[in-house]
Automatic annotation (TrEMBL), chains A, B:
Residues the record marks as site: Essential for prephenate dehydratase activity: 196
Record-listed E.C. numbers: 4.2.1.51
Superkingdom, natural source: Bacteria
Pathway(s): Amino-acid biosynthesis; L-phenylalanine biosynthesis; phenylpyruvate from prephenate: step 1/1
GO BP, sorted A to Z: L-phenylalanine biosynthetic process
GO molecular function terms listed in the Swiss-Prot or TrEMBL record: prephenate dehydratase activity
Chemical reaction(s) catalysed: prephenate + H(+) = 3-phenylpyruvate + CO2 + H2O
Protein's name in the database: Prephenate dehydratase
Domain ACT residues, every copy: 215-292
GO cellular component, one term: cytoplasm
Enzyme class: lyase
Domain Prephenate dehydratase: 25-203
Pfam families listed in its UniProt record: ACT, PDT
Taxonomic source organism: Garciella nitratireducens DSM 15102
Length: 299, 299
């Protein structure tokens, strides 16, 4: 496999990726207090990092391309609402690799300015996923006007600036601290087992010796049994598939890219054999990374 | 299979589903001029229908449950941006069936009040999918404020009411006619092969004799090779899988429901055998319908 350039351990890898002053440059989408920023702090908690917020997911990829940052951190899936299509597409579009993973427990909270109460509220601001995750709570307040915003943390910041008891945001407890807001009601997300999985992306393919998860994206000939053939290579080599996600192929309506995650380390010869077989059967094949599986972390 | 109650042809089925005055009651989400309404008109073009708009996807399912309507029509997938998670979840939550399908070509257009020009615009209103599908066009106007709305047609209606040259909507040509707006720029969606697939949902399981597509949702034991085992039954019985969509299982983070579409009619004995085998291997199994595949229709 040409993509496999080297096998390092995490320490070596970080040494190469630091600035002259020893800091690692990391980019995320959103603002301070966003779930991406929290995931970044947790993943790099033992490292000296300098972080840069970006407005869009693609801006993070562009900064990696321009070598402005060494790592980007991006949400790829929520355990209640599913995969984040745009990040899947960007992973295929840019020639970068997943080098790590972090799963963060997400709680949504209703935040208002000091002294505001449930009965004062007329308008609520949040990211559409904030509304979607709080849908059961919101059903009790059908008169509230819901206004979608780019980011839960930006909506909390806006509430602080507006300084009106009529306006509330759905966001994290961390943003309540940051913007000096009251938590009017906590944990309003209907699914109390609500995690977001973040990936750490790098322009270089790095495999740490403790890597136990592999991601790839493929497209297959449009004929009966082609996906079955691919899954057969996993089964025959006793490889555990963790996830399959279908995403549209733009110029071929109702045909799909398959993003497949499975357990393993590329140093395993069974796995190398299965991957070689899959690559041969695919119209499109890209290895997205071999990294350490992220545990579920409570905030 | 207990779910298979009867096999009818479309004419018989419609005769049973009419009101006393001969009209078929159909519900859709959105307002007049929405893509759902257009898909409904096209699917039922030879029938006498009375249609009801509903505010949310779930309202359509609730109206079916209350027998207020005989059919609901809902978008389930876009060929550029992928599956619509909420509709997949509602299909599993309610005990209803897919009885038909319609694929409509979607074009997005920039609409303004009479005489408005590109250089006048400061704010643009649309459904988030309207923005997402027009992302390449919008990159040339980074100063425009993008304001997400529930529905493309509602945003067009709002532009008409506001009557300001500074405001524009991204919506269909049909809404330009309905609300007497100018098309400032047509076909601004980046993917010119952009279709949305709609499903027709009924509270009763109906199989027409010309049905050629089957949908099911399953969950599988969380162990290596379980999805492979299921796909093997398709391959061994020469059944063509059309699509697999993974959706989260709420209380089990990183486990999935698989929504599988494949070709066939339930009267085929090979297919019945494969389905029985799959049902036995599944933790959860629901047959979602056997219906006629929708062609891609240009508007």
């Amino acid at each position: 496999m040409g993509a496999l350039k080297r096998v390092t351990n995490k320490k070596d890898e970080l040494e190469e990726k630091t600035c002259k002053n020893g800091q690692i440059k990391v980019g995320y989408q959103g603002v301070e207090g966003s779930f991406s920023e929290q995931a970044m702090r947790k993943y790099f908690e033992e490292d000296d990092i300098s972080s840069s917020p970006f407005e869009t997911f693609e801006d993070v990829f562009q900064a990696l391309k321009d070598r402005e940052i060494s790592y980007g951190i991006l949400p790829i899936e929520n355990s209640s609402t599913g995969g984040i299509g745009e990040v899947y597409s960007l992973l295929r579009k840019y020639d970068f690799y997943i080098v790590g993973e972090m799963c963060i427990k997400i709680t949504q909270n209703l935040l208002g300015i000091k002294g505001s109460k449930l009965e004062d509220i007329e308008e609520v601001y949040s990211h559409p996923q904030g509304f979607e995750q709080s849908v059961e709570f919101l059903k009790d307040y059908p008169h509230w006007k819901l206004i979608p915003y780019k980011n839960t943390a930006i909506s909390a910041k806006y509430i602080r600036e507006e300084n009106s008891k009529k306006k509330a945001a759905i966001a994290s407890k961390r943003t309540a601290e940051l913007y000096h807001l009251d938590i009017i009601q906590q944990n309003i997300n209907f699914n109390q087992d609500n995690y977001t999985r973040f990936i750490i992306v790098s322009a270089d393919f790095d495999v740490t010796t403790d890597a136990d998860k592999i991601s790839m994206v493929i497209s297959l000939p449009h004929k009966p049994g082609s996906l079955y053939q691919v899954l057969r290579y996993f089964a025959e080599n006793h490889l555990n598939m963790l996830k399959i996600e279908s995403r549209p192929i733009l110029d071929r309506p109702w045909e799909y890219f398959f993003y497949i995650d499975f357990e393993g380390n590329l140093q395993n010869p069974h796995l190398k054999k299965a991957i070689d077989q899959i690559e041969k059967k695919s119209n499109f094949f890209k290895l997205l990374g071999n990294y350490r599986k992220g545990r579920n972390i409570n905030q």
